[in-house]
Amino acid sequence: MLAELRELYEGDSDRAQAFRYGLVVFDIVSVLLVIGASFAEHLRFLDVIGMLFGIVILADLAARLAISPRKFRFWVYPTTLADLIAGISFLITIVVDGLGFLRVLRTLRLLHTYQLVRRLRRDFRFFRRYEDEIAAAVNLAVFLFVMTGLVYATQHRVNSEIGNYADALYFTVTALTTTGFGDITLPGTGGRLIAVVIMIFGVTLFLRLAQILFRPSKVHHRCPTCGLLRHEHDAVHCKHCGTTLNIDTEGDT
Quick one: pLDDT at residue 253? Predict the structure, then answer.
């Protein structure tokens, strides 16, 4: 059983890669479920679907724990804690309303699995060339989803201006970009603190993405001599030690 799990989570076979791609699709669907549920009335079947999602998330967490060689260290990884919180939130939202935004913490796993990233590099030319840009955009999107969920969960019952996820997303984007139209505000000390967090951390991530977008693109290829990982996509020699490189390219310049 453990050998089977280890092959699925750590193997390089087509079956293992399809399984990990399936987990990414599952993560995306779970986020869409959270967003879609905010536009619907409180429906029982959505709670049931959420519980099923929670069971799958916790089962995935248990499987990764079972194959981990360092089980104590496994629990201190941010992605592990995010999965645990997200899974529990799916299960208890039926009893404790207002914790649904914690579900989007599951997205913290996107592009943070080495085997998946390696496969994406191999399968998609676009990902190989724009890996840093994609990673920065995903991190910004994850932050946006988490903060939008927090705004919605804390405000939709007490703030008439936050009626659904779209309203919360609108406020989050205007705060992140420091546009501040003023048509939607978060009252009270707690609301102001949420806005401050969005502006400080969101703008930092936004600037990071902009910095990556406007600098020359590079590829990941480990130099066999000095270990330098980032090089120009058409580099012939390592700029650090001069070793001849053999970077896979598609013939473009």
Answer: 45
Structural domain count of the chain = 1
Would you say residue 49 lies in a domain?
yes
Would 22 be classed as within a structural domain?
yes
- Give the domain extent around 89: 1-124
Among 202, 206, 203, 217, smallest CA distance to 132 is for: 217
How many whole angstroms separate alpha carbon 151 and alpha carbon 195? 9
> Considering the domain boundaries, does residue 195 fall inside one?
no
Secondary structure of residue 242 in the 3-state scheme:
coil
Q: Is the pLDDT of residue 242 over 70?
A: yes
Q: Are 175 and 151 in contact (CB under 8 A)?
A: no
- Kindly give the residue spans of alpha helices, DSSP state H, lying in 75-164: 78-92, 114-123, 125-129, 131-155
For the cut 80, the answer to whether the pLDDT of residue 128 exceeds it is no
- The tokens describing 209, both together, are 């993405």
* pLDDT tens per residue, range 101-112: 666 666 666 655
- pTM of this structure: 0.65
Residue 5 maps to which CATH number? Answer: 1.20.120
Strand 230-232 versus strand 218-220 pairing type: antiparallel
Task: Determine the angle formed by the axes of helices 188-214 and 131-155, rounding to 10 degrees.
Answer: 170
Q: pLDDT digits over 178-236, tens only?
A: 777 878 888 888 888 988 888 888 778 777 777 776 665 667 778 888 888 777 767 78
* Contact present, 22 and 14 (Cβ < 8 Å): no
Structure tokens that stand for 67 in this block: 């194959």
Kindly state whether residue 251 falls inside one of the protein's structural domains: no
Above 80 in pLDDT, residue 92?
Answer: no
Q: Which amino acid is at 189?
A: T
